[in-house]
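Sequence dictates fold. Below is an illustrative record:

_____
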Amino acid sequence: MRGKIFGLILVLFSFCGCYDRGGYGDSTSFDVVPNASIANLASAASEASCRTITDDVVCVGRVTTSDREGNFYRTMFVEDATGGVEVLLGTYDIASQYPEGVEVALRLQGCAIRKRSGVVQVGLPPYSYDTTPREFESQVIIDRHIVRGVSVAPIEPLRADIASLSTALCGRLVRIEQLHYTPDELSDEEPQMVGYSRFTDGEGGVVYCYVSEYADFANMAVPTTAVALQGVLLYESVGGGAGAQYVIKPSCADDVEVAAFVD
């Protein structure tokens, strides 16, 4: 145990030394200077257990998700030039305070991190009987760890194809075009977007789209022509014996876009 804690301390102390802004964060809309990247957090996080950050670690990025249409719930994703992270806010109507594209600083001292679905989650340290980060839950705690900037800029997703996907991209906002709905089993019923929908490209690649039953567009019909999917990339079990697969989780119905290009 002491060895694991010491190893984490070494990783966190190395943040300042290995952080390369790479042009991102050199000019922020507030007086906050980042000293770590989200890729640094990913290097320190584990799927096996929670880790608490004891040093003054600060990341800066932009919000890439919205909870307005209900597919994201009590959470938001923040992305910098190196990766994406999920922040467990535990509040509602997040988009009114942190709209897509707004710049935020994450002050992570005292927070816990753990990987889930390939993504680094940030929250409060878990209770003694649990192993997952807790939601911030109150605005007082949120304000302690999140500084909202005034700059709001359009978010440009990472354009990818299925073959280029990797777990290192989990948490990022991605866009994949020229996909076709290809269910494992054919049905006479008109398919809807709710749940995990299977899409393929022309190269044998497979990616799923996840829409919660509580999303406003859960009953949206699955397009039967070529589509472009945009959303946060996850890597998780999709059921039906398919095991863990790459999953795109969109924020809104418009993120499932019927292709305007020639099929």
Notes: The first strand starts at residue 51 and ends at 52. The chain has a mean pLDDT of 89. The two ends are 56 Å apart (CA to CA). The CA atoms of residues 20 and 231 lie 26 Å apart.
